[in-house]
Amino acid sequence: MSLKRNILDLRKRKEIVLQGGGEDAIKKQAAMGKLTARERIESILDKGSFHEYDMFVEHQSKDFDMDKKVLHGDGVVIGTGTVYGEPVAIYAQDFTVAGGSLGLMHARKITKIMDHAIKMRMPIIGINDSGGARIQEGVDALAGYGDIFFRNTQASGVIPQLSVILGPCAGGAVYSPALTDFIFVVDNISKMFITGPEVVKTVLGEEVSTEELGGARVHACISGNAHFFATTEQECFEQIKKLLTFIPWNNQRKAKAFPAKSPKAEYNIDKILPADPTQPYDVRDIIKAVADDSDFFEVQENFAQNIVVGFGRIDGETVGFVANQPLVLAGVLDCDSADKAGRFIRFCDAFNIPLVTFEDMPGYLPGVEQEHMGVIRHGAKVLYAYSEATVPKVTVILRKAYGGGYIAMNSRHLKADFMFAWPTAEIAVMGPEGAANIIFRKEIKEAENPEEMRKQKVAEYREKFANPYVAASKGYIDSVIEPSETRMLLKHSIEVSGNKTVMTPAKKHGIPPF
Amino acid sequence: MSEKLEKFILNGVEYKTRLTEKWKNRKKWEEPNPMELVSHIPGTIMKVDVKEGQEVKEGDTLLILQAMKMNNKMTAPFSGKIKRVNVKPGDKLPKGAVMIEMEDNETV
């Protein structure tokens, strides 16, 4: 063959592979509102930047007539490209080829691109759209999953790992996304569960739809497995790209700095906090009042809404915000919110993102349900994550900082670098009502008018302790500040923490209360 | 704030806030009744070995609950009398279903 014929032959071979599962399968995919694997990759990456590897990989299984079947690319597309000019590794399961089922070679392609991402210290984006293990390949399919999970764990805390669920992701397959840093789901397209509706019906006799069992909304609102929820694939791709602007490429780097921008005038920090500590407000307004351009990119927006976490910038630098949300369940810490915050804090710490905490919380959520669900060990995650974090840590106490919550929310005692409090802060072992009832139990009981006496004692306690000055007098608070000084001081804190160095005792790894 | 907020009492203080679905749907705790034999796992009743009114000794097999491909022998937690049998072979049960009610000899 001449060179020209060789080239033509190559082109023809590529063309065949690029057809994936063929026209009919692609039509079916489109009818479900889904893009194809390569379309998805091209929608995320910079135009024309994608280079595909392993196009000609084929499966090698022989059982059950598999030797007569050709599965193009073995049902997965892998490669590298750029997002905003920075390199990323990516893979996308191709549902049009044998339902995106995972066999040994399919898994080998994924692990190959994962190894590449780890070696090149760049983020990896995994697009999941697969019916599950390719049953004909038996234990080889399981081996393939295991190889992926192992690499997810190895890569954890080294490179950012993003999982995008754009189709079914069931059974063991769910554990790769679960091991990664961020999961993106799309309404009506994403389905994630360990056991599907059919098994649930057989075992339990419970009829449940796929959507109700493990649809996008379930994972975004109830289970907390998903971090970002979108209504269309395109919106999901925009979220992925936006997230990548806030995070660094690996654990040795800092997130890219952007030109500083002032917050928008509509967020007036002096006008958000109600005077009455029992009245709520949206703590996200406070974050927007200090963040560059009032741009707050919230993570797990719909799950455990009593705590708010997400990314923003102060003077061009990415920070991770953690804030109690008085608008939901009065801003208490509970199992879910502790889990949400703990994980976010650990991501920020692993990837050199300074932490800014806004505190206004009445304590932990009481109740049998919470205690039995393990609010002790879940709550401990917050303490662990803050204590362990060595990135710059700033806390601003807005209003209530009671009891265990005061300690947990990045207190001085967990080695916060900067502790600020607004003059409205109430730092005490518990709220004035509870405290007065205990300390003055006898006086109240024996008073002529117990209710009057109770009110008087509550006011007395509030006057004495429900303020920031007791804590400030002991040096637990560095400065009591005016709300309007907050942004300036956050900026200052981060500026002077650029060379923060912390020595921790040598260890293999800690044992956080998982 | 214009939206209607709900009351939420915590440590004697009444807060105005939003309540989550999860909080509203939480399971209220009930004291377990030691006279009730409850399914500890969802499953299917394979066999029932006792009848109402029958005397049983502690450790006697009362029924077989198949769950996750395992046949679980459910035994009498104490010696007593079978008051009610709420299940029959083939029944599919969720977790926490009362399968058998017993009475101990002292209450008889």
What key phrases describe this protein's structure?
heterodimer; A: 514 residues; alpha/beta; eight-stranded mixed sheet; seven-stranded mixed sheet; 39% helix; 17% strand; elongated; B: 108 residues; mainly beta; OB fold (Dihydrolipoamide Acetyltransferase, E2P); four-stranded antiparallel sheet; 10 strands; 4% helix
Give an account of the 3D structure.
- The complex is a heterodimer of chains A (514) and B (108).
- Chain A is an alpha/beta fold.
- Helix content of chain A is 39%, strand content 17%.
- Chain A is built from 20 helices and 17 strands.
- In chain A, the strands form three sheets. In chain A, strands 10, 11, 12, 13, 14, 15, 16 and 17 form an eight-stranded mixed beta sheet that branches.
- In chain A, a hairpin with a 7-residue loop joins strand 10 and strand 11.
- In chain A, helix 4 packs parallel to helix 5, helix 12 runs parallel beside helix 14 and helix 16 crosses helix 18.
- Chain A starts with a helix and ends in a 19-residue tail after the last helix.
- The mean pLDDT of chain A is 95.
- Chain B has 108 residues and is mainly beta.
- Chain B has a domain of 72 residues: Beta Barrel (OB fold (Dihydrolipoamide Acetyltransferase, E2P)), CATH 2.40.50.100.
- Chain B has one helix and ten strands.
- In chain B, the strands form three sheets. A four-stranded antiparallel beta sheet of chain B has the order 3-10-8-5, with no helix packed on it. In chain B, strands 7-6-4-9 form a four-stranded antiparallel beta sheet, with no helix packed on it. Chain B has a two-stranded antiparallel ribbon with strand order 1-2.
- In chain B, a hairpin with a 2-residue loop joins strand 1 and strand 2.
- Chain B is elongated.
- The mean pLDDT of chain B is 89.
- Chains A and B meet through helix 13 and helix 16 of A and strand 2 and helix 1 of B.
Please render the helix and strand layout as text.
The complex is a heterodimer of chains A (514) and B (108).
Chain A: H1 3-18, H2 23-31, H3 37-44, E1 51-53, E2 76-83, E3 86-93, H4 104-120, E4 124-128, H5 139-155, E5 161-165, E6 168-170, H6 175-179, E7 182-186, E8 191-193, H7 197-204, H8 210-214, H9 216-223, E9 228-230, H10 233-246, H11 283-290, E10 297-299, E11 307-314, E12 317-324, H12 335-350, E13 355-361, H13 368-373, H14 375-388, E14 393-402, H15 403-408, E15 418-421, E16 426-428, H16 432-439, H17 441-446, H18 450-465, H19 469-473, E17 479-480, H20 486-495
Parallel strand pairs in A: 3-4, 4-5, 5-7, 6-8, 7-9, 12-13, 13-14, 14-15, 14-16, 15-17
Antiparallel strand pairs in A: 1-2, 2-3, 10-11, 11-12
Helix pairs in contact in A: 4-5, 12-14, 16-18
Chain B: E1 6-10, E2 13-17, H1 21-24, E3 36-38, E4 43-48, E5 55-56, E6 61-67, E7 70-75, E8 80-85, E9 92-93, E10 98-104
Antiparallel strand pairs in B: 1-2, 3-10, 4-6, 4-9, 5-8, 6-7, 8-10
